[in-house]
Design a protein that fits this description.
0% strand, 11 helices, mainly alpha
């Protein structure tokens, strides 16, 4: 890959991993439309590592508190001695269990998705469909007078969001988009829906990165250390900035700018495919 391709693809990964507009779609499209070569497993690993480091660092306080509280729930650390610590332990379990559907779907459906669903037509359809759903959920949240606190989400609600995350393995769906959509439909505020989505992304990105790393180790593919290093750094910077400014923006204007973008992108892709 050229340096320009590395910069564009790494920035796209970092930005779109956490925006509700589908990172997989934006990484597939350059090869579909511009004829760029596939970025390779090594680069995929690098940008996943960069994105993972960004979300863990941004939510380091929450992650640390959940880790300590979770250890207490399995009798490895001190038991929870406050209501907040007790909730942190529950939240950690919700995130762990809600990650299971995506792991199973990825394990048994990854090959089928890779072979049959990574096309511009599929991306166009899912971009439009899940864009409409996000818009519906956002309008519903905007008209709601009282939002459900995150503490009231419950394991059932967390698992519903986890099932939605599994569906996001289909390119164009957007992991963050569909998980935020379900969170909003379950009564969460835009901020809490986004925060839960970001926390849920940590084990999901870690699983995806581990899978790609294993594939890289088992393959005979050479490693472009320059592309991996630059890609990881740029993905980290763009992902960290994206999380920070998205949480500010979503509280002020909601999800509608991203809905409009998805609808325009989906319509453009549909025209490109069918023209």
């Amino acid at each position: 890959m050229s340096t320009l391709e590395i910069i564009i693809l790494a920035l796209l990964q970092g930005l779109t991993e956490f925006l509700p507009i589908s990172s997989s779609a934006h990484l597939i499209l350059p090869s579909q439309i511009l004829g760029w070569q596939d970025q390779g497993l090594g680069f995929d690993v690098a940008v996943h590592v960069g994105s993972l480091l960004a979300v863990v660092l941004y939510f380091r306080k929450e992650v640390g508190e959940m880790a300590v509280a979770w250890l207490g729930t399995v009798n490895i650390g001190p038991a929870a001695n406050s209501s907040q610590a007790s909730f942190d332990g529950k939240l950690a379990w919700w995130i762990i269990l809600a990650t299971v559907p995506a792991g199973l779907f990825g394990l048994f459906g990854k090959d089928y998705i890779e072979e049959h669903l990574r096309s511009a037509l599929v991306i166009a359809a899912t971009t439009l469909l899940f864009g409409f759903l996000l818009g519906f959920a956002d309008v519903k949240a905007g008209h709601r007078k009282v939002n459900k606190p995150l503490e009231k989400l419950g394991l059932k609600g967390a698992m519903l969001i986890g099932l939605a995350q599994a569906v996001a393995l289909i390119p164009g769906t957007s992991r963050s988009g569909i998980t935020m959509t379900i969170g909003l439909m379950l009564g969460l505020s835009r901020d809490n829906a986004a925060r839960f989505s970001f926390l849920l992304s940590i084990p999901a990105i870690a699983m995806a990165g581990s899978y790609l790393t294993l594939k890289l180790i088992l393959s005979a593919e050479g490693v472009d250390w320059y592309a991996m290093g630059l890609g990881s750094l740029l993905a980290f910077i763009s992902a960290y900035a994206c999380i920070h400014y998205f949480l500010i923006l979503v509280n002020k204007v909601g999800m509608m700018p991203f809905v409009i973008y998805r609808l325009i992108l989906g319509a453009g892709l549909l025209w490109f495919v069918l023209a």
